[in-house]
Design goal:
The complex is a heterodimer of chains A (about 200) and B (about 180).
Chain A lengths: L8 H10 L3 H23 L2 H17 L10 H19 L28 H19 L3 H11 L5 H8 L3 H27 L1
Chain B lengths: L10 H8 L5 H11 L3 H18 L10 H9 L17 H4 L12 H22 L7 H26 L1 H15 L1
Classes of the chains: A mainly alpha (about 200), B mainly alpha (about 180).
């Protein structure tokens, strides 16, 4: 973003945070708490670890407020921090032994969204198997491909923004995404055959 | 047109088409192409089915205590308040060398510190040993007189055994020492 360009709303909020405005930080937290946690959850596939990493993301945002320069979109900066933390966590192997099992007790999982409001045992089983396969397919992707897919699919970020987060070129992001989706399509093709259409 | 699937970069067009993010004219153009290109149609169908599968993966709700935990960490002992400037430790000038400082000057800091610590250790050690004990002059003289008196006693004993001649000369010596 050029210096003369109009700052996005979040960047303006962050500049207010830089000058000591706690209310602006609360607004940013309220807006991005969910997306950051959901992104991290899908990256590390563990709710507790995802929330711990999200805490670290917002702590870094707050502590780095003094050095914040709105040279890019706020979300680019935010997701860069989140992506780096998630990749480091995966490399440290902190989450590997802590993988949550989809077929475990329901706990605090969201209610299943199936057409029939009262899913039968069979539907529940099918849903869980499909979900487990999706999770496994995503977790098998290399870290950068995984991050790119999650930002593209779930956060609906533009190629340029993903490129900025991953510090690579836009064409490299397209290539990453193309290969990642190709792997996922091959891995999950049978799910479509089972009657998703 | 060249088939977009031939090139990973232009395949982004197909992804954007599946996300319905293309301009209407580009969309129409791609649809015309896909009507005659089985590979691009297969890509489109596969991608839409994949995204439908990925949509199954809903995220977890955020736990209730998230904000409370975050704010307790933000306002923890090291965090300070929003209105505060970042805390600067009194010793930070020592370690946070200015950006302009040459990389060659930075090793001087630990070396200087080591020198200061050695000097301080020397001074503390020196003080612990205390000043050299110098006996007062009077005490030395008393000791000398006592020694002389003991010697005299011994000489007296000797003189009683070896005769008066020797005794006289030793008495003279004793008188001289007392004076």
């Amino acid at each position: 973003m050029g210096a003369s360009a109009v700052l996005d709303y979040d960047a303006r909020l962050m500049l207010l945070v830089k000058h000591g405005d706690g209310g602006s930080f609360a607004l940013l937290l309220n807006k991005y708490r969910g997306p950051v946690i959901h992104f991290l959850y899908r990256m590390v596939q563990n709710q507790a670890v995802a929330e711990e990493l999200a805490q670290e993301v917002f702590l870094r945002v707050y502590r780095g407020r003094g050095n914040y320069e709105p040279s890019a979109k706020f979300t680019t900066w935010l997701f860069r921090i989140a992506t780096n933390l998630a990749i480091n966590s995966l490399r440290d192997g902190k989450v590997e032994k802590n993988h949550e099992q989809i077929d475990g007790p329901a706990g605090d999982r969201p209610a299943l969204q199936v057409p029939d409001r009262r899913p039968s045992a069979e539907q529940l089983l099918v849903y869980r198997v499909k979900l487990q396969e999706v999770r496994e397919a995503i977790s098998e992707l290399p870290e950068k491909q995984r991050a790119a897919v999650l930002m593209h699919k779930y956060e609906e970020m533009e190629y340029s923004q993903i490129a900025s987060v991953l510090r690579c070129s836009e064409s490299a992001v397209k290539s990453l995404l193309f290969r990642a989706y190709e792997s996922l399509r091959a891995r999950l093709a049978h799910m479509d055959d089972k009657g998703a259409r | 047109m060249n088939c977009p699937i031939e090139n990973t970069e232009s395949a982004g067009l197909l992804l954007d088409y599946c996300r319905r993010k293309l301009a209407p004219d580009t969309t129409a153009f791609l649809e015309r192409h896909m009507s005659s290109c089985a590979r691009c149609r297969a890509f489109r169908d596969g991608q839409i089915a994949l995204w439908r599968s990925l949509d199954e993966w809903e995220s977890m709700p955020v736990s209730d205590g998230f904000d409370r935990r975050l704010y307790s960490r933000l306002h923890g002992p090291d965090a300070g308040n929003f209105s505060e400037k970042p805390r600067v430790r009194w010793w930070s000038w020592l370690f946070d060398a200015p950006l302009s400082a040459s990389a060659f000057t930075r090793p001087a800091v630990p070396l200087a510190l080591a020198g200061v610590m050695i000097l301080a250790g020397y001074l503390v050690n020196d003080r612990a040993d205390g000043p050299v004990q110098i006996a007062p002059r009077d005490a030395v003289e008393v000791e000398q007189v006592e020694t002389v008196l003991e010697d005299l006693d011994m000489l007296r004993l000797l003189s009683s055994r070896f005769g008066d001649a020797v005794h006289g000369s030793f008495q003279d010596a004793a008188i001289e020492a007392r004076s």
